[in-house]
Amino acid sequence: MSEADHAVEEAIRDRLAVARPGDAILGEEFGTTGIQIAGAGHRRWIVDPIDGTKSYVRGVPVWATLLGLELEGELVVGVVSAPALGRRWWASRGGGAFADGDPIRVSEVHALEDAQLCFANFRDWEPHQLSEAMLTLSRTVWRAVGFGDFWGHMLVAEGAADAMIEPELALWDVAALRPIVEEAGGRCTSITGSPAIGPGGCVTTNGHLHDEVLGALGAS
After folding, report:
1. Which residues, including other chains, have CB under 8 Å from residue 140's CB and lie 6 or more apart?
2. Is pLDDT larger for residue 29 or for residue 161?
3. What's the predicted TM-score (pTM) here?
4. Cα dihedral sign for 186, 189, 192, 194?
5. Comparing 49-53, 108-112, 131-135, 172-176, which segment has the lowest mean pLDDT?
6. Long-range pairs of 10-17 with CB within 8 A, sequence gap ≥ 24
7. What are phi and psi of 155, to 5 degrees?
8. Is 53 exposed, middle or buried (0-12, 13-18, 19+ CB in 10 A)?
9. What is d(CA 12, CA 49) in angstroms, rounded to the nearest whole number?
């Protein structure tokens, strides 16, 4: 974490306290605030103030603020704002997905050998005993390239990449991503195929390749 992580989350919490005073908030830096009440109308904002902190502190422009909205347990809104890239993605359930105001859609690639695969770091897979599976998958696809953190998932959502895989994400890492990917026509699940909510791995694809990617990573 960095001082900027704290400052960004505090700023978001201050804005939400004014705009949505009755809503709960879950943030990476400061945990949960607000009353967690199940039932009709329950709303929770899920905040990752800087996704890609290591990039941020080294001056690499691949970092973003992630903001998701959970309504009655369902992730219904996602916003990914990457100011250093000059990009913003967003989606709402049933409303489509957008990047910088333009509608986005996943690719139509149907074969792994034609696919562009994104990943964060080969070493991240070692603690999960999936290094060999990851390497095998990377040799199967047309191109494997390390576009990490939020960016790989957004590249899938806008059709520039076809799959993005990560071995470990928390809810605040994925809450904003899932609505965008799914509204763009893709899939975003755990490595076992269940809805991606963290903690655990995350597989984002254009949908056509999803089962093959899960199988390559050993999903039953």
Report:
1. 112, 113, 216
2. 161
3. 0.93
4. negative
5. 131-135
6. 12/45, 12/47, 12/49, 12/65, 12/67, 13/47, 16/45
7. -65, -35
8. middle
9. 8
DSSP state of 54: H
Please compute Rg for the chain using Cα positions: 17
β-strands 163-169, 116-119: how paired?
Answer: parallel
The residue whose two tokens read 């254009």 is 206
Q: In this predicted model, what pLDDT tens digit does every residue of 58-78 receive, in sequence order?
A: 999 999 999 999 999 899 999
All domains in the chain, ordered by first residue: 3-103 (3.30.540.10), 112-216 (3.40.190.80)
DSSP string, 181-192: HHHTT-EEE-TT
**H-only helix segments in 40-121:** 53-58
Model pLDDT for residues 152-169, shown as the tens digit of each residue? 999 999 999 999 999 989
